[in-house]
């Protein structure tokens, strides 16, 4: 099976895990702090602003709490997003207000976001679809001008940037995902970035039960009763650990080679599929934009999209679509929303296999089988 997503793990990661085993310290410790510092350097921010957590989803939920979202607040987010974003907003009692997206890029423009703003809008939660920055600069400027908090769901955008500024650093809070299907993987895990230093300190405290000291051992050096609890507010346990941080540190070092290979695969798809009738390729990146190349998507007639996906699966090629529109989820109470760009994208878009482990001959196989299926299914439509 040619998988749509697949991690790249090898001897370096295994050696890093072995070192952790030999240290006999698996929990939150020195490797976690080192990973946070290295990732902060990658972003160009202070290490105190980054917190290694157990998932980007946990970061989404914590971010809504940090920004004080709750009943009476509206939060604007694209409907073409992962369900974790909608859940994180709705769980606070705030109202998710879904905005439309460009049907070709699947990212919202500043105009899409602005049209969805209400007098009760307290935050915007922006996704970078497929690892492309989208209109983040204009959206961030609009939010600042209006006094609206911006959360960047940068789960897919670990290497994305605009004019050298990394995605995730434009807003007030951001998170990245390191789960098994991402580019940089730790098995499960994520990183949280908080712009305001005081809020970042609070986030670190809230990520570990609300405790001022995350370790009794470290507290023993400064207190004669290091076991005493110092809890200012209720938190939870969502911190990362040295085992996964060791893997993440190696993966971060390898990230440039991963992205370079994914870019090469994207360019290969562009060449192989540019003349396929009935298939629309992803748009070119705007000047100054750098992508993580997490998704490669094609678009076709909605009447054949599902059939093409089934044909490819029969040939051992797994494709998918992300993300099903959130405004169609009954739990959010927004099923009557009119978002034509999102609906069009959801019915016509198919994600092709894209990961750094893909061989050139596999890319050609995917392209050839897609070409054959689209021609066959398209011909059936005209009969």
Description:
With 383 residues, the protein is of the alpha/beta class. It folds into 2 domains: 11-251, Aspartate Aminotransferase, domain 2, CATH 3.40.640.10; 255-382, Alpha-Beta Complex (Aspartate Aminotransferase, domain 1), CATH 3.90.1150. The chain is 40% helix and 13% strand. The protein has a 7-stranded mixed sheet with strand order 1-9-8-5-4-2-3, sandwiched between helices. Strands 7-6-10 form a 3-stranded antiparallel sheet, with no helix packed on it. Strand 2, helix 4 and strand 3 (95-99) form a beta-alpha-beta unit.
Notable traits:
2 domains, about 375 residues, PyrdxlP-dep_Trfase_small, transaminase activity, alpha/beta, single chain, three-stranded antiparallel beta sheet, pyridoxal phosphate, 12 strands, Aspartate Aminotransferase, domain 2, seven-stranded mixed beta sheet, Aspartate Aminotransferase, domain 1, transferase
| First-to-last CA distance | 32 Å
* CATH class category name of the largest domain: Alpha Beta
SSE pattern, N- to C-terminal: HHEHEHEHEHEEEEEHHHEEHHEH
The count of helical stretches stands at 12
SS content category? alpha/beta
Radius of gyration: 22 Å
CATH topology of the largest domain: Aspartate Aminotransferase, domain 2
The poorly predicted ranges are none
Taking all residues together, what is the mean pLDDT?
Answer: 96
Shape annotation:
globular
The CATH architecture category of the largest domain equals 3-Layer(aba) Sandwich
The main sheet comes to: 7 strands, mixed
Give the spatial strand order of the biggest sheet: 1-9-8-5-4-2-3
Protein name: Aminotransferase
Cofactor: pyridoxal 5'-phosphate
Keywords: Aminotransferase, Pyridoxal phosphate, Transferase
Active site: 182
